[in-house]
Amino acid sequence: MNQTKQDTTIDGYFKAGKILFGAFILGVVNFGIVITVLFFMDVLPLVEFAPELMIYFIAGSIIFFLLMTYLGSLIFNKKISKVKSSQDFAKKLSVYREGKLIQAVTLEAAALLAMVFVMLNTHIIFVVIAALSLLQMIRVFPKKAEMIEVLDLSYSEQQNLNNPEYDLR
């Protein structure tokens, strides 16, 4: 019974969101560690791209990164704009977390694609794109201050948000 109550409190809400978001970041970091180990074991690159094709892989990776960054932000902003005027505090928080997780997923996709290209051909631009994706994921990590601002929370909602024992049910 205590476990259920903890999951519905503000504290439980933030803990669950941070664990999920952190898992996406750690997935990218772990994959990067594997690639680094393979690189230093002289296993990588797996193939050599023809120089005339390399520009397409680089351009595709950059475009995919920009598209995923834009798409994640667009979806997040659309979700927030739909719920911003709602009086349902729990729904606002739920939509915020959902939007943040969508941002994490889109950025993780860009990072993983760049990392696969690193495995195929160890060009530094792919490492840079993967690192930028990871930095962007860290930048958009859910924060209470941002939540207050983007959801335009009332004073009473802010008080609830700052009360770790507040039950969202």
What does this molecule look like?
This protein has 169 residues and is an all-alpha fold. Helices cover 79% and strands 0% of the residues. It contains seven helices and no strands. The chain has helices at 2-7, 10-40, 51-83, 89-120, 124-139, 144-151, 155-161. The longest helix has 33 residues, at 51-83. The model has no long low-confidence stretch (mean pLDDT 91).
Could you estimate the helical fraction of the residues in percent?
over 70%
In DSSP terms, counting alpha (H) and pi (I) runs of 4 or more, how many helices? 7
Record field, number of beta strands: 0
Outline the low-pLDDT stretches: none
Which percent band covers the strand fraction? under 5%
Provide the succession of SSEs: HHHHHHH
Label the structural class: mainly alpha
Radius of gyration: 20 Å
Average pLDDT number: 91
Number of domains: 1
Largest beta-sheet details? none
Termini gap: 14 Å
> Which outline best applies?
elongated
